[in-house]
Design a protein that fits this description.
The strands form five sheets. The protein has an eight-stranded antiparallel sheet with strand order 3-17-5-13-14-15-16-4, with no helix packed on it. A four-stranded antiparallel sheet has the order 8-7-11-12, covered by helices on one side. It has a three-stranded antiparallel sheet with strand order 6-10-9. Helices cover about 45% and strands about 20% of the residues. With about 475 residues, the chain is of the alpha+beta class. Among the domains are: about 210 residues, Up-down Bundle (f41 fragment of flagellin, N-terminal domain), CATH 1.20.1330.10; about 100 residues, Immunoglobulin-like, CATH 2.60.40.
Amino acid sequence: MSLRINHNTSAINAHRNLLQNSEQMGSTLEKLSSGLKINRASDGPANLVISEQMRAQIAGLKQAIDNSETAVSLVQTTEANLSEVNKLLINIRQLAIHASNEGVNDETMLQADQAEIANALSSIDRIAKQAQFGQKKLLDGTNGANGSVTGEGLEFISASLKTVDSRDTGFEVVVKQNASKAFVEGAAALTEEMVKRGETLTIIENGKTASYTTGEDDTVETTIKNFMSEVQKNGLNVNVRLTDGGTLVVEHKEFGSAPNFQVSSTSAGVLSQQAGQIQSSNVGQDIKGTINGESAVGKGLVLTGSSGNVQDLVLKFTPKAGEAAIPEGGQVVGQVYVSQNSLKFQVGGNYGQTVGMNIRDVSSSKLGTGKDNMSRFKALSDIDVRGFQGAQDTLLLVDQAINEITSTRGELGAFQKNTLESNLQNLRVANENLVSSESVLRDVDMASEMASFTRNQIMTESATAMLAQANQAPTSVLRLLQ
């Protein structure tokens, strides 16, 4: 055998194995102490990239869960305030019904009803102004799609999340056909002779019937008044008047093609063309037009955007009485400016995973708008029950306001149940699955790593012993010198 002293190859080999075993044991100790099998990029570059992306997703999902829970709290706070508004509206409705009891009420009682209604309206305005979540106002209209208009007869009703903001440029409103009411005009004048002979006038509207037969003491004027009293008593939604030429005109109170009625008269031409036959009214027209040059659907006086930038934008246009016909191609009647301030919620862990909610203004000046009434009340803030007609029209506006509030509450409830709470369940499941996946990539298998640690520990001790032996080998050269 040959002996060398300049290079101890066996020692170098043992030293290399000792360093390798020491590094492996150090890595194993790091993994056991941290509980992670990837502590740095060199431990697994591809797995590190994937696991860091998952960590970002998990952090986003956790925050989205917190966001959704906070959003649920906001919706519940809003709904609680709307519940109180609902109670106040029901109280106002009860007072309007009391005020309509004209045969019993005196001026003092009506004044008391009006004072209580004014107080309730003030409470509604206070709730609208003061309801908030933290410092965020809820019911004052700053969290919805609001609008203003220019143009006589044009009125903004509502908008939704889908309506595009137009506060700077506005949307041009073009009307191509004005709305009209269903009507019947007699071809023959009602004469005193017909009245003395006994004329029976009948109107049928929405399943209700009003009929009046004249007597010997009646005149044309008293016949019209008595017939109109029957119409009001039976709750028909029509008006009856006498023209200068002595012919009868029956007109529905509401605009559009849907409302209609039937008429009959004993004499041919007074109401029905044929004596004793039931005749349907002429069909009214729905408004037709465009908003911002985009299509809109008309119903009565109401024009609703159906697509594009103006989707769900609701406007009302009331033409002037006796206004000239719309020219061919339509007529510009004004501009509408929409301010889109609807609430947005980040309910997912990624870009664009948001939902929105529109909370309307519930102040008395914004409730019950757009409802036709003989008292010309424009909103709930205008109601006055000190007269019979005012009390009746108050019921119309209050019923609409109740529908608006309950509809808003229903939308909030659906948003909470079907969007937020459902999303919360989905987020929690997604978070659980992502944490599990990230654990597979990054967490160390303690049992397997303990086995590796034991092996590396034994190998290190063995390599240390072998290095010692390799270092002793060159000493045998000294024996040759002896």
